[in-house]
Design goal:
The complex is a heterodimer of chains A (503) and B (100).
Chain A lengths: L1 H10 L1 H19 L4 H18 L8 E3 L4 E3 L1 H23 L1 H4 L5 H20 L3 H19 L6 H32 L4 H10 L6 H21 L8 H8 L2 H32 L4 H7 L2 H20 L5 H22 L2 H32 L10 H4 L1 H15 L5 H15 L3 H26 L15 H19 L2 H9 L9
Antiparallel strand pairs in A: 1-2
Chain B lengths: L3 H21 L3 H26 L3 H31 L13
The chains are: A mainly alpha (503), B mainly alpha (100).
């Protein structure tokens, strides 16, 4: 037994570093009251320390801690996305005026960012239902606190209340699905579930088959809630609007990446191959067409996200709906469940990281300056703050998916992976949805460049050099990745190896 | 010996009551109680299956679920308290500045 633990710890150092960062940041925060920036820097260093250990992860999938946790290229890829997002969010937070109003607590805020990053990293590798549940709860409970962090703001505590109620409901539903799966297969281990389903003893009679279907629908509802898939999306706009904007950006990028990783692992390891075979249980699985159910969810998600976004006046809320739509696009890659589809999702997450964080950053600095996130207040910005406006334009064009931006390449690969698996109609719906999204993104551009400021005010709004530099730093990858995406694509294609039993 | 179906039906009924309570009740505190009911019905399912299958994993996850439920309730009540300070109400219908 100690042998297993020592062997496993060897591969577990990035996670241990993150946990230690959280503890160290808390102690530091208690020891030195009011030195909030110090806590932030400590967390930043901890995240960087975890990041530099990732390249030394084994290139072959390894199962550690007796099958509880998997270290494979697939999870490592998502760990990169999550930890880098965490670092960027910490850097954004140093600049945020909204958080400065909560002086005295901001140190705790950085501690929680370390904790939530730790939870997300655990999610990417969980290969046992207990681990999946615990890591999802670690992320959820910490994000409830972070969403309600601006205690004096009513909208923030309101967002947190909605988040905690719906979040607890969805994890209850997911847990019920897990209990049914445990009862039917007799194991909590994902590869054990696969073996039990493959041997067929779990699902023989009509009743237990119905129970298995119910269990998977319940699990799907739980995962769907966390990535805000329609019809489980209703919390997303409220929470994204009410939470501090740094946290909104974090939830929109890192939390989505983590849940996609755990969802793909769950379906892929426990059910995927079974659907392809044609004997016993497999054929009954084929009666219920999972890819069709996921395809319908994906279409609903992107259509609703895009159409409701048209009516939004608050840019933060519009980006929330746009992130729902993007969850729909990424779900298309899960629908096809091919190597091409998985690498397209991973490529898309890299592009999504640059365009979404850039857009949220601009919304944050503008809100700090003019105290509003309303799209109408952006009138005349093109003249008054040229660099910021060009940046926001490029990020929004990238989110639409037009060339020459990173978003175009992301969407191109996603749609072609769907077409390669004969889901032509799904790709067409996706393209039509991108056209709809152009309408509401272009509305922001129209306000910035074609409309005069309401009171004819043309005095330039001065942003600090740091702000302009950060915006330019985000513009560069958004343009460059359109032409030089090959290294990222190669990395994504090398990272699709998921741990399977028998390896 | 009581057959397992009795336990499963009981827990399914409890789960449904809890779920319906979350969706229909308007008081935030009662909603949290309903969520506890849902989690406890899940615990009952796990324990019943665990005894039926002779596999202790189902009982171990129950401990984790109880611990997490306590943490969730603590955070939830703290958030309700923060909202009450701003708003002087725990009624869900008053939580309405963010919509559409």
């Amino acid at each position: 037994m100690p042998d297993i633990i020592f062997q496993s710890t060897k591969h577990f150092w990035p996670e241990i570093t993150l946990a230690l960062t959280f503890i160290a940041a808390m102690i530091f925060e208690f020891a030195t009251k009011k030195r909030t920036t110090g806590t932030g820097i400590l967390v930043l260093l901890g995240l960087a320390a975890a990041l530099v250990q990732l390249p030394s992860a084994p290139s072959e999938p390894v199962s550690i801690f007796g099958g509880m946790y998997a270290i494979d290229p697939f999870s490592t890829f998502f760990k990169y996305v999550i930890i880098v997002t965490g670092m960027v969010v910490v850097l954004f937070s140093f600049q945020s005026q909204e958080l400065k109003k909560e002086s005295g607590h901001t140190g705790e805020y950085y501690c929680f960012i370390a904790a939530v990053t730790f939870g997300m990293v655990l999610m990417t590798g969980s290969s046992n239902l207990v681990m999946i549940y615990l890591s999802i709860e670690l992320v959820s409970i910490t994000s409830y606190i972070l969403a309600g962090f601006s205690k004096s703001l009513r909208r923030s505590s309101e967002a947190a209340l909605k988040y905690v109620i719906f979040g607890a409901l969805s994890s209850g539903i997911m847990l019920y699905g897990m209990s049914l799966i445990f009862g039917l297969t007799g194991t909590l281990d994902l590869s054990g579930i696969r073996t039990a389903l493959a041997s067929g003893h779990a699902v023989t009679t009509g009743w237990s088959f119905a129970a298995l279907m119910a269990a998977i629908v319940l699990m799907l509802a739980g995962f769907g809630y966390k990535v805000s898939v329609v019809p489980f999306h209703f919390w997303t706009p409220d929470v994204y609007e009410g939470a501090p904007i740094t946290i909104t950006a974090f939830l929109a990028v890192a939390s989505k990446a983590a849940v996609f990783a755990v969802m793909i692992r769950f379906f892929y390891v426990a059910f995927f191959d079974n659907m392809l075979a044609s004997t016993g249980v497999y054929s009954s699985f084929r009666n219920v067409d999972w890819s069709m159910i996921l395809a319908v969810l994906s279409v609903l998600t992107m259509t609703l996200g895009n159409f409701v976004a048209i009516w939004q006046d608050n840019l933060k809320r519009m980006l929330a709906y746009s992130s729902i739509a993007h969850a729909g696009y990424m779900l298309m890659g899960v629908v096809v469940m091919s190597n091409f589809g998985l690498s397209a999702i991973m490529l898309y997450f890299v592009m999504y990281f640059f365009m979404n964080l850039g857009a949220f950053y601009v919304v944050m600095v503008i809100a700090d300056k003019i105290g509003s996130e309303n799209i109408d207040d952006y009138r005349g910005f093109g003249k008054r703050a040229p660099i910021i406006s060009v940046g926001l334009s490029i990020f929004l064009i990238s989110l639409t998916g037009l060339p020459p931006t990173a978003g175009f390449v992301g969407k191109l690969f996603l749609f072609s992976s769907v077409m390669a698996s004969q889901f032509i109609w799904l790709a067409i719906v996706g393209v039509l949805n991108s056209v709809v999204s152009l309408y509401y993104y272009a509305r922001v551009l129209k306000n910035m460049y074609l409309r005069e400021a309401p009171d004819g005010d043309e005095s330039p709004i001065v942003f600090s050099k740091v702000t302009s530099a950060v915006v330019i730093l985000f513009i560069i990858p958004n343009i460059l990745l359109c032409f030089f995406y090959q290294p990222v694509l190669t990395f994504a294609q090398r990272s699709i190896a998921i741990l399977l039993p028998g390896l | 010996m009581i057959p397992i179906s009795h336990y499963l039906i009981l827990s399914a009924v409890m789960f449904t009551i809890g779920c319906a309570g979350v969706l229909t009740r308007r008081n935030a505190i009662i909603i949290f109680m309903c969520i506890e009911l849902m989690l406890n019905s899940v615990n009952l399912t796990f324990v019943a299956f665990s005894a039926y299958l002779g596999d202790s994993a189902g009982q171990i996850i129950v401990f984790f679920v109880m611990a997490v439920a306590a943490a969730e309730a603590a955070v939830g009540l703290a958030i309700v308290l923060a909202l009450f300070r701003n708003k002087k109400s725990v009624d869900i219908n008053d939580v309405n500045i963010l919509k559409w």
